[in-house]
Structure of Isochorismatase family protein:
Amino acid sequence: MPLLDSSRSILVLIDFQGKLVHMVHRPAPVLEAARRLLRLADLFSVPVVLTEQYPKGIGPTEESLRSIYDGLSTPKFFLEKTAFGCCGDGDFELLLQQARPMLRPPQRQIVVAGIEAHVCVLQTVLELLASGHKVHLCWDAVSGRGEEYCRHALERMAAAGATLTNHESVAFEWARDKNHPQFKALSALMKEGQPQG
């Protein structure tokens, strides 16, 4: 799997919602990594897709994440869904096309974060891989209710072809060089206190 390229990437944040987001394994560092990913996407002009699974029942996106999403200057897209996997909603592929209109699935690099690892994230990643996308799965921004559910889901997604990564690797791959115009901002973001976990 090649390194990430910010001009080919799309960040997908899956269902960081309601009370559930605070019930997952390692909620604080997972949320912090997701917040950083949003800010990094903004720095590197990477489009963002934010999804919510049946918000009437589960609740809206966690407030701090939604606040960062709402303030993004990079292109952003929102999907409210009932299918567990994002690809089960026909509008998801349309949003990916809008995010990177010049790229077909094999050229798209989808950076994924979300909950729950063994349900909505798993189904989304497996379906993205089946449709030819390159998937980079941020293990530090993925969780579920229970460490073993999360660990085995990550193993299954990696075995299917997803690249396991983390938000810092994503950041430095998007920058690629200390002379990148956004490197100073990236460095400042990384010094804001490391996610614990």
Residues 38 and 68 are 7 Å apart (CA to CA).
